[in-house]
Design goal:
Helices cover 25% and strands 28% of the residues. By secondary structure, the protein is α+β, with helices and mostly antiparallel strands. Bound molecules: guanosine-5'-triphosphate and magnesium ion (MG).
Length: 537
């Protein structure tokens, strides 16, 4: 896999990030878009305000601690011994904003075989991120296995099993740059068996490309019945993605017919709006991944007669960059743990997206759940060693003083002085999808939070809410059915036995949006998604 070497340093949009937590109106807008109703009319405004006050107090405490830290330099054993003051880093980041490209995380999703890996493999090649020699090599080797059509997909499908079967199994992370943006690219699997991997990838993304198969019958297979086009769209939206690029692929198979492209757009548009995507935030781009049509450029004879919009890469280049919560406490949910050597560093390493805050070399971090801390020995972003890394970037953290068995996929790294609550029970506001059986109290689910999935029970149904107003329409309902919005309590199932599996680090959405989103699945289908209102115990 190609990892492009890019200059270090990051930036976000020109304006400064808002203080955490999100203002109530922003929270409301986000929840309403997902059909979750307005939190205050659901009776939870108090909780939101309480959470905000708590965060404010925490911030005040942090500020006090920061001041202490700079003067006593690590006198408190828990306080990170920082070599660069946070203010200095922020100053540097603001200066770089003017000259460097902002970073976005992009997940590529869609039904199995829609052409996701081929599309992005080809994009990376067209952008010069992979060499002709690498592609030739993939072509020769995949031909030998009778899988010649997967040559570009091999850019991401690196495991033997993936190459033999011609399907993506695990997410692959890479990076590339367009004229005005840098991207962390997450190639997700489409096969339904690997949805947990897809969720782990999508949880790390700001934005998504939804690839659909435009060939005759191909779109329908993914969109109707048990196809993954719908489920993936719902999942990425539930995980916080608001901008979507729909790549209508394989149009070569329908002779680049405009009518086919329009028909697909007409079917997707109402569905995506209903899923919570604002129409203005969704772009539809006709493409041919195999031939490279309309990725970076268009050939005269193919799409030019009827399509005048942007190419896929032009569209990516103009995506909005979210404001990062740089001043919030550091949160790194771990999506990968490995021991060994990279090109630049060695030792126990974990990787994941920095959801908020700043991490720097020399900092002591707690790994939750658990009582262990480790020291950041080195940091790597896009294959380069960096002195610090910021919210929004995908980093590899090399740790010392902690063993591999003391943390795992789903652990959260945070400063020991600003820990994430580790709980076995929480209140959530959810939207119910299409469960085979109605949800009742005691309903068993798999709870998904970032890269973690853990057995849980919907312990109680507290209220059904009106989706538009958020008003309670029914208190203590007996069951939740398709499409309803509700307040529930969730209990982790192995809580009684204690240990790692019985509790997870999680925060209310009002305190940290990226740490407060949850999904619930049962028997291989996603039954509900929502946000954490309050941690309980
Ligand atoms: P999973 O990750 O397993 O879900 O699949 P994917 O969406 O990554 O699809 P992949 O890139 O592996 O491609 C699946 C098949 O579609 C391969 O045989 C590709 O050659 C084919 N394919 C991809 N793009 C195009 C295209 O533009 N035109 C045609 N005709 N076939 C394509
Ligand atoms: Mg793939």
């Amino acid at each position: 896999m190609s990892i492009k070497k890019v200059p270090t340093g990051h930036q976000q949009q020109a304006s400064l990030p808002p203080p955490v937590p999100a203002p109530v109106n922003a929270l409301r807008a986000d929840m309403e878009a997902m059909g979750l109703g307005a939190p205050e009319s659901a009776g939870s405004l108090l909780q939101v305000e309480r959470a905000q006050k708590q965060a404010q107090r925490q911030r005040q405490q942090e500020e006090d601690e920061d001041t202490t830290m700079t003067t006593t330099n690590g006198a408190d054993d828990d306080a990170p011994v920082l070599s660069i003051a946070k203010e200095k880093i922020l100053e540097e980041v603001r200066a770089k904003e003017k000259t460097e490209k902002p970073v976005l995380s992009l997940v590529v999703v869609g039904h199995v075989d829609a052409g996701k890996s081929t599309l992005m493999g080809r994009v990376l090649h067209e952008l010069g991120e992979t060499s002709d020699k690498e592609i030739l090599n993939y072509q020769r080797q995949s031909d030998k296995m009778g899988k010649g059509s997967f040559a570009y997909a091999w850019t991401f499908d690196a495991m033997d099993e993936e190459r033999e079967r011609g399907v993506t199994i695990d997410v692959a992370i890479d990076s590339f740059a367009t004229p005005h943006r840098r991207f962390t690219l997450i190639d997700a699997p489409g096969h339904r068996d690997f949805i947990p991997n897809m969720i782990s990838g999508a949880a790390q993304a700001d934005t998504a490309i939804l690839v659909v198969d435009g060939s005759s019958g191909g779109f329908e297979k993914g969109f109707e019945g048990g196809g993954q086009t719908r489920e993936h769209a719902v999942l990425v939206r539930s995980l916080g993605v608001q901008q979507l690029v729909v790549a209508v692929n394989k149009l070569d198979a329908v002779r680049w017919a405009q009518s086919r492209f329009e028909a697909i757009r007409e079917q997707l548009q109402p569905f995506l709006t209903q899923t919570g995507f604002q129409p203005a935030k969704v772009a539809y781009i006709p493409v041919g991944a195999m031939s490279g049509e309309n990725l970076v450029s268009r050939s005269d004879e193919i799409l030019k007669s009827w399509y005048e919009g942007p190419t896929l890469v032009e569209q990516l280049d103009s995506l909005d960059v979210p404001v990062r919560a740089l001043e919030a406490p550091l949160r790194i949910p771990v999506s990968n743990v490995f021991k060994g050597q990279s090109a630049t560093a060695s030792g126990l390493a974990v990787s994941g997206r920095i959801e908020s805050g700043i991490v720097q070399v020399g900092e002591k971090l707690a790994a939750l759940p658990g009582d262990e801390t480790g020291l950041v020995r080195a940091l790597e972003v896009d294959g380069e060693l960096v002195p610090y890394a910021l919210a929004g970037s995908n980093a590899t953290v090399f740790l010392s003083g902690i063993e591999a068995n003391q943390l795992g996929v789903g652990s959260v790294l945070c400063p020991p002085s600003q820990m994430v609550p580790v709980v076995s029970s929480f209140a959530a506001q959810v939207i119910v999808f299409e469960p085979k059986y109605p949800i009742t109290a005691g309903y068993a689910v798999e709870l998904f939070h970032h890269s973690r999935d853990i057995p849980a029970t919907i312990a109680s149904l507290d209220a059904i809410l009106d989706k538009a107003s958020g008003q309670v329409t029914k208190a203590k309902p007996r069951m939740l059915t398709k499409g309803c919005s509700a307040r529930i309590k969730v209990q982790l199932r192995n809580a009684a036995s204690g240990g790692r599996s019985g509790a997870i680090p999680i925060e209310p959405f009002s305190i940290n949006k990226n740490m407060g989103r949850v999904l619930f699945r049962r028997n291989g289908e996603t039954v509900a998604a929502g946000i954490v209102l309050e941690t309980l115990q």
